[in-house]
Amino acid sequence: MNIDDVLAEFGLDATRMQNGSLSVRSPIDGTQVARLAEHSTADAHLAIDAAHTAFMAWRMVPAPRRGELVRLLGDELRAHKQGLGRLVSIEAGKILAEGAGEVQEMIDICDFAVGLSRQLHGLTIASERPGHRMMETWHPLGVVGVISAFNFPVAVWSWNAALALICGDAVVWKPSEKTPLTALACQVLFNRAMEKFGDAPANLSQVLIGGREIGQALAAHYRVALVSATGSTRMGRELSPIVAARFGRCLLELGGNNAIIVGPTADLDMALRGILFGAVGTAGQRCTTTRRLIVHESVADELLGRLKRAYSSARIGSPLEPGTLVGPLIDRAAYDGMQAALESARQQGGKVVGGERRLADQYPQAWYVSPALVEMPGQTKVVLQETFAPILYVMRYTTFDEAVEMQNGVPQGLSSAVFTNDLREAEWFMSAAGSDCGIANVNIGTSGAEIGGAFGGEKETGGGRESGSDAWKAYMRRATNTVNFSRELPLAQGIKFGS
Ligand code: NAD
Q1: How far is the CA of 231 from the centre of ligand 1 (A)?
Q2: ipTM of the prediction
Q3: Same domain, 186 and 158
Q4: How many domains does the structure of the chain reveal?
Q5: Are residues 416 and 470 located together in one domain of the fold?
Q6: Residue with CA nearest ligand 1 atom 13
Q7: Do 47 and 176 belong to one domain?
Q8: Domain-located, residue 45
Q9: CATH of the domain at 428
Q10: How high is the pLDDT of residue 448?
Q11: What is the phi-psi region of residue 210: left when phi exceeds 0, alpha when psi lies from -120 to 50, beta otherwise?
Q12: Is the CB of 230 under 6 A from ligand 1?
């Protein structure tokens, strides 16, 4: 595995990271790879104050010049794509292709943000008053607190940081306590970009190492204008009232329970590949993982037969070995959660294939599983919850209405897809009466979004949007300006006030 060499690429000395209170383990074999010192709440407050000072200067730097810093960050990421991707694999357990793919996503958002730095457009609005002009201006917002989950340990920071930085904000990042090393590596790359940039204010982007107390410190601090938090719905429920109590802004990217509908006209070869990548990729630990398959009764037997064969040949093993498709679960708690969900599914009438622990002899401290396919009689209680593991619940349907109702019949609303060659089904699925999710795809699976679109979901997924489209507006504040260039002072709505 040789983590020392990987860390050395980022100037991080593994031998100096062995005395802190935070134990960092690789899910590949369960070994401890570092013990990091943790920040306190007082440290968090100092970091936020420093970020605020940086913001006060950065907001006056022209946006295209701010874009230059993000361009330099993108260059660093390009140069270290393989190394950072490998560190993601070691710390989060993703296969190498997915680790590098995550870094590619960071590069893509940097490119997107650089272009955007010249396009932070407002509007000109027709005024009802003669000799008046109305417009809308977008201004930098302040300090942005980023809280991220273990399963996208680096990309989530970049989705937020690249946009926040070009928008004129400063960033304080609290990564998952399960993946702090990748965060430290990103900070090194950011610092190198800062050096090349030259005159950016210090502390524009900082990392705080620690658990949920640090997340709560960000949520509670009046100077954190936006808290962008990615993680479980439980976390969002605990965090958002703290931010709301001080009227701060929250951008929430929480749990998903994503479904693929396969219609009677679907191209089953394509559907099979989409389902396999969505359900088994990242060992079922993506927010957009396919967790439910809603399949038309006329194609269900054939599709299930093919899926079972594909499942049994998906190679499970170390994510660092070429050919592996399914790496480990992040930790024992994830394994226990998966087993508990499978037991509930059995009790609720499910037929379970797979789900057993694997490679225990080779990796007694790690948690590998065979992905599980579970035929369910309907959407019982266990199907309604997100279990962060490779479990695919399969339900059959007769009419398309029924399928859409099932797709929408869960508390979460992140990603959804239909495989069909029937134009009416495809359009219905994307219409106002179709999928209620933030992402609704046709003939593409639920996972693997591109950065050009806005990313996020409805209901218990939290409602936030990150990444492309106009997601940048969350990182700025809007001012409406009305200018009177006449010699009169007409009041709006034609009001006469006094003589
Ligand atoms: P988690 O909720 O356990 O932790 C996420 C982050 O929140 C961590 O940094 C953690 O320290 C922090 N945190 C936890 N409780 C907190 C609290 N009460 N106050 C402040 N901070 C707190 O999630 P996880 O296990 O790391 O990640 C898996 C979850 O994240 C899944 O539910 C997955 O769907 C979700 N996720 C969502 C998206 C998305 O874009 N919608 C992306 C990735 C992951």
Answers
A1: 2
A2: 0.98
A3: yes
A4: 2
A5: no
A6: 212
A7: yes
A8: yes
A9: 3.40.309.10
A10: 86
A11: left
A12: yes
User: 224: CA distance to ligand 1 center in Å?
Assistant: 19
Catalytic residues: 253
**Is position 499 within any domain?**
no
Phi, psi dihedrals of residue 484, rounded to the nearest 5° = -100, 110
Ligand 1 within 6 A of CB of 275: no
The dihedral region occupied by 13, where left means phi > 0, alpha psi between -120 and 50, and beta the remainder, is beta
Cβ contacts of residue 392 below 8 Å, gap of 6+?
A: 275, 279, 290, 291, 292, 293, 371, 372, 373, 374
CA nearest neighbour of 284 among 225, 239, 336, 327: 327
Evaluate: CB of 238 within 6 angstroms of ligand 1. Answer: yes
Identify the residue whose C-alpha is closest to ligand 1 atom 35: 231
Whether 487 is in a domain gets the answer no
List the single range of 7-21, 60-74, 80-94 with lowest mean pLDDT: 7-21
| Closest by Cα among 376, 371, 396, 234 to 307 | 371
Distance 198 CA to ligand 1 centre (A): 35
248 and 169 fall within a common domain = yes
Please provide the size of the chain in residues: 499
Comparing CA positions, the residue from 304, 293, 306 lying closest to residue 393 is 293
331 Cβ closer than 6 Å to some ligand 1 atom? no
The helix (run of H) or strand (run of E) holding residue 170 is: strand 170-174
Check if 147 has its Cβ closer than 6 Å to any atom of ligand 1: yes
CA–centroid distance, 371 to ligand 1, in Å, is: 22
Asked if residue 304 and residue 195 are part of one domain, the reply reads no
Ligand 1 and 382: CB distance under 6 A: no
Radius of gyration (C-alpha) of the chain in whole angstroms:
24
445 within 8 A of 260, measured Cβ to Cβ: yes
Domain, as residue range, for 53: 3-254+462-481
Tell the residue nearest (CA) to atom 20 of ligand 1. 215
What digits encode the pLDDT tens for the residues 92-133? 999 999 999 999 999 999 999 999 999 999 999 999 999 999
Question: Using one digit for the tens of pLDDT, what is the confidence trace for 154-207?
Answer: 999 999 999 999 999 999 999 999 999 999 999 999 999 999 999 999 999 999
Are 286 and 225 part of one and the same domain? no
Kindly report the protein residue whose alpha carbon is nearest to atom 15 of ligand 1: 235
Q: Two tokens at 90?
A: 């070691």
Q: Is the beta carbon of 241 within 6 A of some atom in ligand 1?
A: no
CA of 312 relative to ligand 1 center, distance in Å: 31
Q: Does position 499 have pLDDT exceeding 80, yes or no?
A: no
User: What SS3 state is found at 443?
Assistant: coil
Query: Does 265 lie in the same domain as 203?
Result: no
Query: Do the domain assignments include residue 498?
Result: no
Same-domain status, 442 and 308: yes
- Tell me, what CATH number does 126's domain have? 3.40.605.10
Distance 227 CA to ligand 1 centre (A): 13
- Residue 329 CB–ligand 1 contact under 6 Å: no
Nearest CA to ligand 1 atom 12: 212
- Residues 295-313: tens digit of each pLDDT: 999 999 999 999 999 999 9
Q: Quick one: DSSP state of residue 483?
A: E
